[in-house]
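Bench log. Compound arrived from synthesis this morning; before running ITC I wanted a structural hypothesis for how sodium ion sits in the protein. Inputs:
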Amino acid sequence: QQKVQLSYHWGPTHPAAGFANQFAERVTERSDGALDVQVFPSGQLFGIRDVLGGVASGAVQVGMAVGIVSFPPINSDYNVTAMPGMFDSFEQMRGFFDETEAGQALMQDMQSKTGIRIVGRNPVGPIAVFSAKDDLSSVDSLAGISARVLTDADRVRWGALDAGSTVSLPTGEVYTALQNGIADTVSTVPGALSAYSWWDCVKSAQLPYFQFADAYIIVNAAWFEGLSPELQQVVTEVGAEITAESTAAIMDASAQMLDRLEAEQGGTVFELTGDELAKMNRIEREQIYPGLTEMVSKDTLDAAQAYTQGD
Amino acid sequence: MTIPDLQETRVTTLAWAYGRFNDLLARLCVLVAGAGVAFAVFALAASAAERVLIGISFAVLNDLPPQLVPWIVFPMMGVLLRHGQHVTVDFLPAFLTGRRAHMLELLIGLLVAVASLVFLAGGMDALAFFRMLNQRSETGLNFPLWWIYAAFPTGFALLFWFAVEKSLCAALALAGAETPLRIIRGRAT
Amino acid sequence: MIWAALTVSTVLLLLSLPIFLVFGVGSSMIAILDLGLPWATLLQTSFGGITKQILLAIPLFIFAGYVMVRGGIATRLVNLCMALVGHWPGGLGVAMVLSMGFFAAFCGSILAAITAVGTILMPRMIEGGYPKPFVVVLAAMAALLEALIPPSNAAIIYSSLTQVPVARTFAAGIVPGLVLMLMLTVFVALRCRNMPRAAKATGGERRTALVAAGSALLTPVIVLGGIYGGFLTAAESAAVAGVWAIIVGFTIYRELTFKGLGEALMSTTIATSAIFIIIAMAKFLSVVLTFTQAPQQLIAGLTDLGATRLTFLLMVAVACLLLGTFIEVVPIFYLVIPMTLAALPIFEVDPVHYYVVLGAFIGMGLLTPPVCVGLYTGAAAIGLSPEKAFRELPGFLLLGLLYGLLMILVPSLATWLPSHV
Ligand code: NA
Ligand code: NA
């Protein structure tokens, strides 16, 4: 019997936390206790930025790493997932990584550089814009807002949309910032609204989802290779199961969250359509893409565009 | 004219050079740390003003200052040891005087030196890992993150160096070597 | 290995090795040798701990405090307080309490407050016939207001450890701060009723003092207004306070010099690194606590014993008092909070209430010998040997215990204001 430690940063109410716990339970169960997976939630061991290092160094054997946070510092081409509107679903984004040569090479590079292995996915959710302001009905309604930024890609997007100001805040400080107005707008996954109580302050949302945030179930490669073939199979099998179940659940859970925003909080969900959507797409194409191309190599960008357009 | 005189001069010169070098090194550490604090004050005040007035939010002003904290803190460990400004439980020193106090000083110096060697080795081990991981900072500057982690082994190397100085001073005091000690100490304050 | 690590730590502590090494050596023995963790994990957690933006507010508030001392702001405040209450029974003592309260709204650091207000008022009190030991202990005790009235370094540390927004932690300290101020004022007025009093200031004198302190009094408006008005994060407000203190010191009071500014920077650098190196190494300990799940075991033990909210808080209070006798304030925060945080939901303790209770009992460690930095700092400011001040301790400690119990028994003193921000 072997003790295995699993670390993730989500609080208990985040949908992804439930699937992470499921992963631990099922691995323990199916291995007949040969692998005893112990869960360290809520960033007790490693925060969102540290978990990759924690798994890579072997301090823990398993972790949940949010791609857009963990991977760009290793290989900036992963920012291709931050190109707004590049992918229109989790399936399409994963298809690029699984099926194209460029996508596979990118994932391979990240795994070999860090000594980790990806055994499954546990999506964080689709990303939309949420605001403490009432009106998000148009592209222009984003002009002048004060937006919270988490990554460099966020800066480019808000700049192109003519935000009044941007402020870089760690997740723990967003609640206060929304309350006192240092920031009034965040782009995030719907699940974050309840997980961090942000919906106390949020009054409106803007669709369509423009990005799909995946988290990866990662294991320490050396540890994994030291397991017996049977145990390796248990880990990959459960990983595949969790991937399927969490992906099926995340879009529904997100839609429910938007419903709750309207029903319980009296918020409004706006969806850009017709001319407004075309206008947003034009800004994305003409301003945001060029701004982000510094962060993604031309080869990867071309490959992704070829894949999504041929799809 | 006599050889002992010559030797004494040489020891005195050595002690002088040693003390002088340590002074400069300590001053350099303080300079680095002080510059970090000054930059943090300037950057955060400027970033607040800039956000209220213009609103672009430069990552260098916003996100860089906290990342610099390790380079403010770790290099100062040795300087704090030198000036007795670390937080300690001053229980035993209150009872000891004279030779016994010097012996405690020597013991502390040696223990700190040993501990800092262990942390230095650990820090190098971790640094090798972070270089392998090759993460880059998310601030607008986009530098390798191991530059920040390097503050840890650097700090403990400096702490080791100043712990040796402290032990040497205590040992000289025990041996009753007045002159070189006064020179090292004289510069040390 | 745990016992070996504890033994080594205790020995190093008693040999008066720097406390950060005591934390570091003990924790890494367990982490590396027993738990088999890589050094990278210790460094990663430690660096994560010291590079939080919110913690940067600590050096910045310390810096602001030192600049205020050198730029004449502290003097103006003391003069104003003297003009207001100097003629009361125990007037100089009450002025000390009031000045500390005022200065607390400017500055985050307890030791800076003792140095700032203390060095101005303590000599005056001694001239006025107050016994030196009383003056020293009063200064150290009144400086506790510093941790309660925002901005406060203790609140910043608490927030960084608990994810409670710092605006809430700041707000939590205000009412308890006023309560402590009131208790101290009554205590001093009663004890010192026979001391000579200052002549009552005329209306004109009061106006002059108020005008002179005007620019100084703007500081808390800028700091708190900035935070609660939504313009500034805590760290930014600290930086702005520093810049404001520089402007006031150079252009309005004209007492600040470049040399003084450099010295303020130097003192800040030293104070900051002394605090942060402890935080960095205390994070090693938190890695060990998390991996061994010691807090969960402790909490399970407490619930098995049938602990309730009240008994839990009392036990924590006693633990803080004991630890506080021989460990400094910052390390205790890093020892006690990670150990007990998970118990708060179980015993239904509001995190901001917990902050105020911890503040009361950990804060008393500044007064309890042998390790009592507050007392040492106060004594050093007037060149008194600290042991001489010990005889004044019992009265003040009793008052502190009374205050602490009040905070345990009446949670709304802490929770009322934060629920309204
Ligand atoms: Na304060
Ligand atoms: Na104490």
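What the model suggests: The pocket of sodium ion (ligand 2) is lined by residues C 324-325, 365, 368, 371-372 (CB under 6 Å). Residues 2-420 of chain C form one domain.
ITC booked for Thursday regardless.
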